[in-house]
Amino acid sequence: MAIITISREMGSGGIPIVQQVAEELGYALIDGDVLRNAAEDYDLTQDALQQIDEKPPVFIENLDRQIELNMSRIQLIVLEQALQGDVVIYGRGGQDLLSEITSVFRVRIIAPFEERVERWAEREWIDPDLARSLVRKSDQQRAGFIKYYFDRNWTNPIEYDMVINTTRVSNEMAVKLIIEAIKDPYLTEKANTCKTKVQDLIIQKKIQIARLDDERIKDIWFNIGVVDCHVTLSGHVYSESERQAVIDNATEVEGVTGVTDNLKIINY
Length: 268
Hints:
The chain is of the alpha/beta class. It has two domains: 3-182, Rossmann fold (3-Layer(aba) Sandwich); 199-265, Histidine-containing Protein, Chain: A, CATH 3.30.1340.30. The chain has eleven helices and eight strands. It has helices spanning 14-25, 32-38, 46-52, 61-82, 94-97, 113-124, 128-150, 171-181, 185-190, 194-212, 240-251; strands at residues 3-8, 28-30, 87-90, 104-110, 162-165, 222-227, 230-237, 258-265. Helix 1 (14-25) packs across helix 8, helix 4 (61-82) packs antiparallel against helix 10 and helix 10 packs across helix 11. The mean pLDDT is 91.
C-alpha cells in the first residue's frame, strides 16, 4: 500500500514531475481534478471548493465553522482515496493528514523565488510583475493553510523525506529519484500496517464532519481518538444534551466498533 505525498511551490515545476511519477508507477493521482469530480458526493459545491482549497480560514466567526466543515470534507476525499493504496497525493496537506502513517514517502519540490516567477510568467504569458504577485500570494496562502490546519512550517526540510530543487535537478532525474526511493525496504516493510491506520483516520474525519455539521454542538472543545476502529471521546461539552449529540455522531459512523466516553460537562 504505497503512498507518496508531494508538496510544491508555485512555479517550481511540480506538476509535470507529479504526473510522470504517477504515470510511470501506475499510481492514482489525487489532485485538484479528483477533488472537483468527487465534490458533489461529499456535499461540496464547486464554489466552496474553489474558496477553501489550500487556503487559510478567513477568521470571521460565522464563516470559519463552515469553512472547517468543507475543509474536513476535502480531507475525507483524500483519505478515502489514500486507503486504496498506490497513490500520489499532490498537495492538500497530504503528508500532514497522514503524519501517523510511517510508510508514506514525503517529497517537496522547490526552486528559488525569482526562478519560479520567471517560469510562471512564461507559462501563463503574463507580465513578470503580475507573476511575481501571484507567486508570492500562492506562497503566503499555502504557508498559512499548512500553519493553521496542521501547525507546521511548510518550508522546514526536516518534515520531508526528499527535497528536490528543480534548478539543480532535471524533471527526469527528479522522477527517477522518487521512484527509486520508494523501493526502500524501510518503507515497504511498514506498508502492511498502513491500511488499518488510514481506516482509523477516516472514521475520525467522519466524526469531525458530523460534529461540525451538528447544530446541537455549539463549540468544539473535545477530542476524538480512534484506534482499531474504537473511538475515545475526551475533553468537555456544555450540557448533557450536547454530550449525547457527540456520542450519537460517533456511534452512527460506519465502521465504529465501540465508543469510550471520557467527556466532562462544564457549565459556563
